[in-house]
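The material for today's practical consists of a large collection of protein records. An example says more than a description, so a record of this kind follows:
***
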Amino acid sequence: MHAHLNQRTHAAPRQLTWLPPSATYEELRRHTSRTSSGLEVLAHRPLHSTPSPACADEYRWVLALAAGHYPLVLTDLAVVRLDATADVALELTDRLIVCCTAAEHSVDAAERLLDGLRDLGWGASRMKPSPW
């Protein structure tokens, strides 16, 4: 996602954990970058990967802050991130949408992701039921 941002902020997602629960939209917005379509994105720099024991709690905090100001929050979960962070994302997910291109490697990656989720016990019975 980072490569598609025209105006990048230098803020890191972890910095949102410093904000209080009462943070205003403007305080949250200072940490996001905007795409050309106006989508507000909180993105790591390319190839950023520093998982820590606190990562799951930080992720919960960031999503709680975002949910207070955005009607829809999307998260990007790569195949290589099937860890405790993935569990937190899935626990807080209303819907799972897997995107890929028609290229064979992309379809294979999507299949690996879904297989990995099933292997971790994230089958249809564990996901929240759809309200629709």
